Amino acid sequence: MFLIVGLGNPGRQYEHTRHNAGFDVMDAIADKYNISISEKKHKALCGKGVIEGQKVVLAKPQTFMNLSGESVAELLNYYKLDPKEEFLVIFDDISLAPGNIRIRKKGSAGGHNGIKNIIALTGTQDFKRIKVGVGEKPKGWDLADHVLGRMNGEDREQFALAIPDAVSAAEMILRDETDQAMNDYNGKKREKES
Fold this sequence. Notes:
By secondary structure, this protein is α/β, with parallel strands linked by helices.
């Protein structure tokens, strides 16, 4: 069993904001594999299915971003999963331009409050993650305003290109090809056309 969690905030007002990049990728995975993420449990919307021959639980925590760890810790405990081997989290990253993704096997929260809470409540930072670029905040902007805002036309188009990459990277991780996924995607750069 493998747990894949996409991070975001519940509620219509947050749909397709930068901070909900993880939810957007989860929806794409669910659509591709015909998995309904609709069962309410463990403070999340969950769905079960099979991807790449692996039983999976797909989850979208409903705790709001900064408390994502409450849901993740419950899910890991309930299914008795090893975070290092059987857990993947997908979330937004402001240090990556829209359209880019980065895969890591472990690491610090890097200032991301959702990841900070997961590390705090699971007691480990040793878990796989796919970061989806949403672009840096403009100078003088409040970070919350930036991540809770929606992308403009070109950024949105670039971001849309990253979703299939993130789905593909998740499939590779499920096939135990994390190193290959890192090689394929971490160096791949999409730049804005000027």
